[in-house]
Amino acid sequence: MTSHWILGPGAIGRLLAHSLAPQANVTLIGRRPLPGQQTLTTPEGEMREHLLNTLTVDQLVSALPDTAAFVHITTKAIAAEAALGSIADVILPTIPLVLWQNGFLAQPRITQAWPGPVLCATTTEGAYLTGDTGVVHAGRGATFVGDLNHQHSGLSQALAETLTQAGLATTAVSNIRARLWQKLAVNAAINPLVALHGVRNGELSNAAYAGRVQTVVKEVAAVMQAEGIQPPTEGQGDAAWLALVWQVVANTANNKASMLQDVEALRPTERGAILRPLIESAQRHGLPCGVLQALDADLATLENRYLAASR
């Protein structure tokens, strides 16, 4: 059986572990110990229990288990490089990495730094944790996988087939960069605003927030055009990007976005991975980005306030 190491036992990491466990050797790796007996609640409400091989990073380093065929990094974007560094000494430099981060921050950095293959995955699968032993698969979605340098199409296809067989519908694509930027555009229009206002996604369509969504999308659409990224629909320009955002808002109306979950849990948010690439691109291309900069500043103020209070 193929071995998959999953570095980061958050919601996506545990969903991936449960999905792969019946057909592969899975090792779930985190910074602190977790019970091996884990429960998955499916979108249909069925509860499935799996005994997963859970290790801490320290245990992994000392145990030196069998080599993995894939190492999936499912941490937050801001932690991805440090997470890889924590196990780099015990994995072969030829092992393929699979990056599951939001935004477009860790992916190009790790792709450039890692000598072996680096695949990037973007998914709309919905999941959230229920403590140390449970994860809820809140909604089925689509996953796309590929590499930024167009060098590993065969490996991407093999992984896509494995994930699809595991119940996570996955397609290998040659334009993963575009897919990552498209998701980044939607995340930038939704996540910061729901995090700042403490609302669920669907509430953004209310009059109190809709205008601000439109101003964010206007700046984001200009950046997408400068980067050569088209919306994943037939339309073009501001209107197409705005229609896409409203579609996601409607489809995920009851969802509590990951950035809002971070704020409520008093954790650092992924603003650096979601907003900074857009701001830096706008500055490179000489485009206005005052709205995006204001969002970033507001989030930084909010983060600093609660992180300082929790120390």
Automatic annotation (TrEMBL):
**This protein's pathway:** Cofactor biosynthesis; (R)-pantothenate biosynthesis; (R)-pantoate from 3-methyl-2-oxobutanoate: step 2/2
Q: Which reaction does it catalyse?
A: (R)-pantoate + NADP(+) = 2-dehydropantoate + NADPH + H(+)
E.C. no: 1.1.1.169
Q: Which Pfam families match?
A: ApbA (PF02558), ApbA_C (PF08546)
What keyword terms does UniProt attach to this protein? NADP, Oxidoreductase, Pantothenate biosynthesis
UniProt-listed InterPro entries: 6-PGluconate_DH-like_C_sf, 6PGD_dom2, ApbA, Ketopantoate_reductase, KPA_reductase, KPR_N, NAD(P)-bd_dom_sf
Transmembrane segments annotated in the record for this chain: none
Question: What GO molecular function annotation could you give as one example from this UniProt entry?
Answer: 2-dehydropantoate 2-reductase activity
Q: Where is the Ketopantoate reductase N-terminal domain?
A: 6-149
Residue span(s) of domain Ketopantoate reductase C-terminal: 175-295
Keyword NADP in annotation: yes
The keyword 4Fe-4S is annotated on this UniProt entry: no
Q: What does this protein do?
A: Catalyzes the NADPH-dependent reduction of ketopantoate into pantoic acid.
Similarity comment: Belongs to the ketopantoate reductase family.
Protein name as it appears in the record: 2-dehydropantoate 2-reductase
Q: Which organism is it from?
A: Vreelandella gomseomensis
